[in-house]
């Protein structure tokens, strides 16, 4: 048996092929429509792959490669504030730099962290939540985590491995602590993210066992995020496909252009 993704022409031209694919295989995820195509992830006996390939309406068949969590590379010099020796300039600090350039202290932009969860994965956030995700880093102030969606088998969007919270901190962590362990020898704060005034949302797609676990279309998750104000999404994960353009690439290409494909306009 092999797990594959079969792309067929959407509409009547592909109906017969999809019916035959359903007869020859076992579904592994809900079929997803992207532009003029329908993608079906299925488990199929290898001898039937050639049979499926010959069906009218079938556009492509690709092996399914399970996505895995990947590490991130922080953009440490995103502001381009370098001296002649290409060393970062501290000046009045990165937060002050943002404010001088019109970035408000309570930025309405919402960054969706699509990962293995974020912090405790519950909204409103419970006691003991990470201080870096509160306004001004103050746990007595409002949390900047606005929503948490969880399609996985876990009971909530809690983060079990550390990856999602780390990525969220790089994107939007806030810190102005002055202790010896809170900044380096040159005065640069640890745990200060690229957009420390932005809000956050959690979309959990890897469960606490470390497995990719998304039984619903990505368009459903992105649509909800957009409805909650999500305009940026961080995806520090991928599949080892050697740079190949696969159906997940196609899906996200579409969602970048239309975050709510089920809504007209």
- Helical residues, percent: 10-25%
Shape: elongated
The helix/strand order is EHEEEHEEHEEHEHEEH
Number of strands: 11
* Spans of at least 5 consecutive residues with low confidence: 71-76
Distance between the termini: 41 Å
Look at the structure and give the mean pLDDT. Answer: 88
Helical stretch tally: 6
Structural class: alpha/beta
In percent terms, what proportion of residues is strand? Answer: 15-25%
Largest sheet: 5 strands, antiparallel
Radius of gyration (Å):
22 Å
Description:
There is one protein chain. The chain has 265 residues and is an alpha/beta fold. 21% of the residues lie in helices and 21% in strands. The protein contains 6 helices and 11 strands. The strands form 3 sheets. Strands 1, 2, 3, 4 and 5 form a 5-stranded antiparallel sheet that branches. It has a 4-stranded parallel sheet with strand order 8-9-7-10, with helices on both faces. It has a two-stranded antiparallel ribbon with strand order 6-11. The relative contact order is 0.17. Mean pLDDT is 88; it is low at 71-76.
């Amino acid at each position: 048996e092999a797990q594959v993704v079969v792309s067929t022409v959407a509409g009547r031209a592909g109906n017969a092929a999809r019916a035959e694919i359903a007869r020859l295989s076992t579904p592994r995820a809900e079929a997803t429509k992207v532009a003029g195509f329908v993608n079906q992830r299925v488990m199929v006996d290898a001898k039937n792959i050639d049979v499926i390939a010959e069906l009218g309406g079938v556009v492509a068949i690709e092996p399914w490669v399970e996505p895995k969590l990947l590490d991130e590379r922080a953009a440490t010099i995103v502001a381009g504030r370098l001296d002649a020796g290409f060393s970062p300039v501290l000046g009045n600090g990165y937060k002050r730099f943002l404010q001088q350039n019109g970035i408000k202290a309570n930025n309405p932009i919402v960054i969706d962290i699509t990962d293995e969860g974020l912090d405790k994965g519950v909204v409103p956030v419970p006691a003991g939540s990470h201080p870096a995700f509160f306004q001004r880093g103050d746990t007595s102030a409002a949390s900047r985590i606005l929503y948490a969606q969880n399609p996985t088998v876990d009971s909530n969007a809690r983060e079990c491995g550390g990856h999602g919270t780390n990525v969220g901190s790089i994107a939007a962590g806030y810190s102005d602590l002055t202790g010896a362990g809170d900044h380096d020898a040159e005065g640069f704060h640890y745990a200060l993210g690229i957009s420390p005034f932005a809000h956050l949302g959690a979309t959990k797609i890897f469960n606490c066992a470390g497995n990719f676990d998304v039984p619903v279309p990505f368009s459903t998750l992105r649509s909800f995020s957009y409805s909650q104000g999500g305009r940026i999404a961080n995806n520090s994960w991928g599949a080892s496909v050697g740079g190949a353009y696969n159906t997940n690439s196609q899906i996200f290409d579409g969602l970048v252009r239309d975050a709510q494909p089920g809504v007209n306009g």
